[in-house]
Fold this protein.
Amino acid sequence: MRWGPWAPRRGGEGLRTAICGFFCSALAFVLLAAIGSEVSADDYMIVPGERIGDVSLNMPIEEILKMLGTPSRVDPGTGLYQWQGRQITVYQSLSTGRISSVRTYWVFRRTNSYRTDRGIAIGATVEQVRQAYSDAGCFLGDGANWRTYGWRPLGVFFTIWTFPDLPVEMINKIAEIGVQRPTTAPPGPGLRACWQGSP
């Protein structure tokens, strides 16, 4: 008759086997959990010029809809699709149907775990962004309720919101981070160097 690993054996062999089985199972669980955490962390990575989490530039919108589900907001005129629960906005190229820009943004009373490969996340200061990316290649654009610092050759930009009712903790803080295709083309009208003396 064949005995299982939990059966008692002469000389305590069964006990040793049982203990080994328990700790081996525990070790396997820990290793699987560690692997899972790495995948989860990668899901929140912002890679300039490429992706935010698992949403990448140049993806067809149909693939993103299948992955993220029904968006909370759609604007067909601009190609905007937004998922507030995921804190993700994409812009679809109206000519190709593929994604030309991916953004993540601040939502009141919600934690945003996305961060760039240089450690910049929602809520960072402009000075922190400047230290991470340097002055070179940065161009500034202003709107009615926003100010954007963008590194066009890298394909990444950071936006401060200037709404009058913005909570105190987000004043002069990065409220939106986006990625787009890198370019070395000259900046368009209305853009200027972020800091005096920067190229």
About this structure: Residues 10-43 form one domain. Residues 1-39 have pLDDT under 50 and may be disordered.
